[in-house]
Amino acid sequence: MALFALRRLLLAIPLLIGITFVSYVVISLAPGGPLDFLTPEDPNASVEVKERLIKEFGLDQPIHVQYWQWLKRAVRLDFGRSFLPDGRPVLTKIGERLPVTLFLNLIEMAIIVGLAVPIGVLSATRQYSLYDKITTVFVFVGFATPDFWLALLLMILFGVQLGWLPISGLRSLNWEYLTFWQQQWDFFSHLILPIVVATFGGLAGFSRYMRQSMLEVVRQDYVQTARAKGLSERVVISKHALRNALLPVVTILALALPGLIGGSVIIESIFAIPGMGQLMVQSVFSRDYPVVMGNLVIVATLTLVANLVADITYGLVDPRIRFGGRRGRR
Amino acid sequence: MASRRVRGRSLPVWIGCAALVAACNGPIESGSDDGAAAGGAPAYGDTFIQASIGDIGGLIPSLTSDQSSHDVGGMIYDGLVKLDRDLTMVPSMAESWTYSPDCLELTFKLRRDVKWHDGRGFTADDVVFTYETMINPKTPAPFKEGFLLVKDVEAPDPYTVRVRYAKPYARAVETWGTYVLPKHLLQSFAEAGTLRESPQNSRPVGTGPYLFQEWKPGEKVVLVANPDYYEGRPYLSRVVYRVIPSQATIFLELKARGVDYVSSLTGIQYARQTEYPAFRKAYQKFRYPGSGYTFLGFNLKDPRFADLRVRQAFAHAINKQELIDGVRLGLAREATGPIRPGTWAHTDDVKRFAYDPEKAKALLAEAGWKDRDGDGLVEDRDGKPFTLTIRTNQGNDERKKIAELTQQRLKDVGVQADIQLIEWAAFIKEFVKPRRFEVVVLGLGTGTDPDQFVVWHSSQRGPDQMNRTGYANPEVDHLLELGRSSCVQSERVRSYHRIQQILAEDLPMIFLYTADAMPVVTARIRGVHPAPAGILHNFTEWYVPKTQQRYTSG
After folding, report:
1. What count of CB pairs under 8 Å joins A to B?
2. For residues B423 and B396, what is the distance between their CA atoms, to the nearest angstrom?
3. Is the pLDDT of residue B525 over 70?
4. pLDDT tens sequence across B143-182
5. What are the C-alpha distances in Å from B59 to residues A29, B200, B213, B221?
6. Are strands B439-445 and B261-262 parallel, antiparallel or unpaired?
7. Using one digit for the tens of pLDDT, what is the confidence trace for A279-293?
8. Which of B138, B142, B425 sits opposite A32 (nearest CB)?
9. pLDDT tens for each residue of B308-359
10. Cα distance from A43 to chain B (closest Cα, Å)?
């Protein structure tokens, strides 16, 4: 197992380098460059300033040289400074946005799992019942609803009409003047709408997975056996079927890991949450290469790690894989 | 009198896909009763919350080119001069200025009571330092042209600044409205070329009416009133810029009274979505002509558009009023030229081309474009039909609609037009700069000074320059040179009036309309007086009567 993990880890290094190289080339090839945004379509923007900045940023070098320079610094975890006029280090910029996104996504993920598992299990065990049909309709509506639209509707209802919840942002402007518990409520109330919107969309896919997985399992022989032993339906489902049905879910969860820090651009923009999604989009639009690359490295690394984790945990939770080496997973 | 900042960026700016800038002038309509009429004496206090669609780029605005940075920077920093409500230059940190008779020497007398936010006195050394920083090749300031024309600057005593020019420069005074930077904090960074990394860029010290308090990137910028401001402490104690990247969310926050000011509503919002009693009670709406114009530009390198008759035919074929009604819900005014209506250099006395498809057809026929095969489209002598592509940038709904309406109107006169929408950066780089276009729909911002040398002069036709249509007219060249080389307004007026008349006849572009700016301010704010300079010109005089203050902190 350890050997397997080590081998996968070593293999991930060239993969990571490949990913960053392709990303670097692609973002450099995108029309326009950072200078078009620092010194926009403006007559006063002197050509000389542009040339100076191009030199300073090293953009006058061929792409492979630029990439090599970037890589040399990146292995020392130096991702440089943003090209934007604030000139702040990339890691600082990412650092101040990561916690919010991570926090939001963790809560969201917990709620999705917490709701999707029972929904999926119940609709599987009562396949084609009224309950199954209702939840099916419900999750598909959730799946099909554009989240920006739902967000706006909820904002109009709870924010404008009823005035129960704040519309956007993370904290009220008088946050510093609130007591501790008021601060907690304030923060929490700002999170309700974004989390509801994000969960509603994510619920559909996950509960369908769960339902599907459960449907497969309940038809297995060992479930028949458990029933034949005279166990109650509850025990059959919760102990024998559910555990096995959860296996594929582990993979999906692990693969959702990079999404945890990627953030949702739409939700962050519409709720004015200063998270990673916004940062990424803004840096792509302004061709802020260092920030784009810094972001990509983190996401790519996490994706690779998540793959690895998925493989390992799969082995851990599924004895068939742990002992059945001859099947030679990947 | 408080300030509307004069920015380094006051020449025309090509407006991108972002929200329009809303500085303004001209006739004013107010959507509500005069806010000051309802009682309440001026009082200090309260917080003013503005929504900003984008985060600021940095806190040394001289290094940035985005609107948000300049909005915030204008509150923290001051210049020697500023624009008053009528867009006239008035003293700010300077007490007065005088020109030498030959317009070559400009002398500023500085106020003695100006202090930096850290308590240091402001002197002429800071002005000289700012100039040296701006012209330093290591300073990545996007707007430095005005300073490059200066021959030298000296400070004969701590409260006098003398600027010399090699030749007369009409916008000399305006140049000195730039943000003055603190020498004692920035000298070493400026010399090393590391201004962007200096503490000033995250914790700025200026001389303006507001002190910097906090910047949470992507979230908000908070400023507090400067109690020692040399023109008196501003009434509003705190100003918060909330970054809300979605136009829809900003509007909902406005409806829920989460923000106090929005620089411009959209047409639909102004005309329909805010027309209900509760909103009218809670907000004051304003409407006046904005500071830019939208145009249909020709590529004059294209032999078809090099023919004046074809351009005139297009001008007759397009129905400007239809565009204004259809695209802007009527919230715009016909543009007749590139100079801001209502300013001293503007004139209405120019040739106009009324909507007249028959005349358009006649002009096309005169230029050799006739419907020779009876398919409804015009062809040249060899039977080649008149086809073209109207290009504009993606994500700007107004321009897309203009392209569509124009397509229809051109079809009426037998010209087959396609439409292509391209992402902004690619559009500029692949089509506009290399002049690989036939017709484009774009916007241009108009500065506070009428000098538009860079847009119309024949020397400015290079790929990185602003004369995108490729316009060249020796008379206009001469007038542009004349207009920018005098410091006497009455002499300049003649040049600019004549330029507008020539451009209206030559039609290097069809000036379509000037969109209205439609700002909204919460009703609890008093003292808002819309003027040619917009509404923010007297911001430091805005106040909320004690009984109506909403935020007690600060």
Report:
1. 162
2. 10
3. yes
4. 777 888 899 999 999 999 999 998 888 888 888 999 999 9
5. 31, 7, 12, 10
6. unpaired
7. 888 888 878 888 888
8. B425
9. 999 999 999 999 999 999 999 999 999 989 988 878 888 888 999 999 999 9
10. 6
- In sequence order, what DSSP letters do the residues of B388-444 get, joined into one string? EEEEEETT-HHHHHHHHHHHHHHHHTT-EEEEEEE-HHHIIIIIITTT--SEEEEEE
Measured CA angle at B96 (ends B90, B102), to 5 deg: 100
Residue type, B16: G
**pLDDT at residue A263, rounded to an integer:** 65
Confidence check on the interface: ipTM exceeds 0.90, yes or no:
no
A325 lies within 8 A of chain B by CB: no
The β-bridge relationship of strands B283-289 and B220-225 is unpaired
Q: Report the gap between the CA of A209 and the closest CA in chain B (Å).
A: 33
Q: Does A258 touch chain B (CB under 8 A)?
A: no
* CA distance linking residue B304 with residue B233, whole number of Å: 60
Minimal Cβ distance to A44: which of B8, B57, B464:
B8
Window A:32-91, CB contacts with B under 8 Å: 32, 36-49, 52-53, 56, 81, 84-88
Residue among A42, A150, A278 with most chain B CBs within 10 A, to mutate: A42
Nearest CB among A269, A279, A282 relative to B246 is that of A269
CA–CA gap between residue B439 and residue B391 (Å, rounded): 6
A256 at interface of B, judged by CB pairs closer than 8 A: no
